[in-house]
Structure formats: structure tokens, C-alpha cells
Write a structure and sequence with these properties.
This protein is mainly alpha-helical and 166 residues long. It has 6 helices and 4 strands, in the order βαβαββαααα. Strand 3 and strand 4 form a beta hairpin.
């Protein structure tokens, strides 16, 4: 898997790989100076990118997560039931939107761009709007879908929210 150690989206897939007990090799990508071979694999130019043993190459964490769950189903992270699966995808998407804004704010703080008040406010506003939605959902249940086990939605939320602490 092509990744970056400080990438929350890479963390999401590392959790999947670990939970599914799959052997894998990590290749760190220089995100400041992206190598051409990486850009050839990833049209979006972002980590994670997963390359399976047969050469199947997938970019975008949600596509990778779905591919892993279909190809290596144990344990399952997406419910089989259509309605439940949709709920799971909805919470995963919301978590990833939170993750997008957390990583953008993190990069902004890292680069210390003083002309960035507009973007800082934009990211902070969205983060502050989304966090209570997760908080509310988890007040009455241990997991986002309310069941007995975690799903892809919880893996995504955990990966991104953990980034707020680094
Ligand atoms: N939608 C993508 C987002 C991935 C993403 O934002 N990756 C960040 C690191 S956490 C990245 O590679 N940033 C480098 C860049 O955008 O140039 C996914 O789910 O994989």
C-alpha cells in the first residue's frame, strides 16, 4: 500500500488490513514531491493507493475499503442488508468529509499560511458542525449503526477523529 505515516485516510485502510489479518507492505510516498510512478497509479495524486497481489490497483480509501471487504470478507465491515449498507456508506461519507477538513486544517496549521483566515474558518466551521453529529449518534450506541460490531463508518470516523489529537 502506498501511504503516508501522517495520513488519516491511510490509517483508515491500515485498520482494515490489520482487522482482516492481511499481510501487506507499506511504501511511503513523498507528498510534497510526488514521484511520477505514483501519479501514474493515482489520478487523484493522493494516498492511500492499494495494489493487490494480482496487480489490481485502487485509489481512494472508500473504494479500497469496499474492494477489501468484497475480496477478503472476514470480518465484514459493510452490512449485507441494503438499507443498513446505505446507512453505513452515509456515515462513512460524513466521516470522510470530516477527515478532508481535518487534514486541510492540519496542513494549513503546519504551513502557517497567514493569508488563510478564510480557509481556516471554513474548515473549522465544518469540523465544529460535524463533530456534534457523531457525538449525538454515539450517545445512545457504542457504534454508529447501533449494532454490536463496528463497521466501515466507525473505522473512518476513528481514523479521522484521531487526527485531531496529533
Ligand atoms: N478521498 C481520498 C482522500 C485522500 C487524501 O486526502 N489523502 C491525503 C493524505 S491524508 C493526500 O494524499 N494529500 C496529498 C494531496 O492532496 O496532494 C480518499 O478517501 O482516499
Amino acid at each position: 500500500m502506498y501511504y503516508h505515516p501522517e495520513s488519516n485516510f491511510s490509517r483508515k485502510i491500515r485498520i482494515f488490513l490489520a482487522e482482516k489479518n492481511l499481510d501487506y507492505e507499506l511504501k511511503e510516498v513523498n507528498l510534497v514531491n510526488k514521484p511520477p510512478e505514483f501519479l501514474n497509479m493515482s489520478p487523484i495524486g493522493q494516498v492511500p493507493v492499494f495494489v493487490d497481489q494480482d496487480g489490481t490497483t485502487i485509489w481512494d480509501s472508500t473504494l479500497i475499503a469496499e474492494y477489501l471487504d468484497e475480496t477478503y470478507p472476514q470480518p465484514e465491515f459493510y452490512p449485507c442488508n441494503r438499507r443498513q449498507r446505505f446507512e453505513c456508506r452515509k456515515w462513512e461519507e460524513l466521516a470522510d468529509t470530516l477527515g478532508d477538513n481535518i487534514i486541510r486544517l492540519w496542513i494549513l496549521n503546519l504551513t502557517g499560511d497567514l493569508a488563510s483566515t478564510y480557509y481556516r474558518q471554513k474548515y473549522e466551521t465544518l469540523i465544529n458542525r460535524l463533530l456534534p453529529i457523531f457525538d449525538m449518534q454515539l450517545r445512545s450506541a457504542k457504534y454508529l449503526l447501533g449494532g454490536e460490531t463496528w463497521t466501515a463508518a466507525d473505522v473512518a470516523a476513528l481514523s479521522h477523529i484521531l487526527h485531531l489529537t496529533v
